[in-house]
Amino acid sequence: MELTINIPALLFPAISLIMLAYTNRFLALASLVRSLKSKYEDGDKNVALHQQIENLRYRLRLIKNMQAFGVLSFASCLFCMFFIYLEWNTVAEILFALSLIFFMISLIEIQISTKALELELSSLEELDNPSIVSRLKKKFDKN
Fold it and tell me: Is residue 1, in this structure, part of any structural domain at all?
C-alpha cells in the first residue's frame, strides 16, 4: 500500500476532536477540584473528601498524559505528511505508524480514567462489585 498525503490528513479531524474532548474533561475536573477545595477550606475535612481529592489528582494526571499522547500523535502525523512531501516514504510510514500508536495509547488512558471514576462511585454507593453487569444480576435476582 502506498502512503499518500491524504491518509494522514484523515487523522487530523479525529485527533482534533479527541483533544477537544480531553480539554472539556479537564475543565470539568478543574471545576470539581475548585469546589472540593472550597469545601475543604470551609472545615469539611472528612476522609471521603480527602479520598475524592486524591482520586481527582490521579485523574488529572491521566488527562495530562492523554493530552500529551494526543499532541504526539498530531505532531507525528504532521511530520509524516512532511516526509511524504519530501518523498521519504519509509520515514513517513514509520511516523504514521507512531501517530496511530500514540492515538491508541491516548484512547486507552480514557478507559483507565473512566475506571477510576467508576471505582470512586462504587465506594460512594458501597457496592461489592462496581460493574454494571453485577448490578443488573442483583436487580434480577431480587425479582
Answer: no
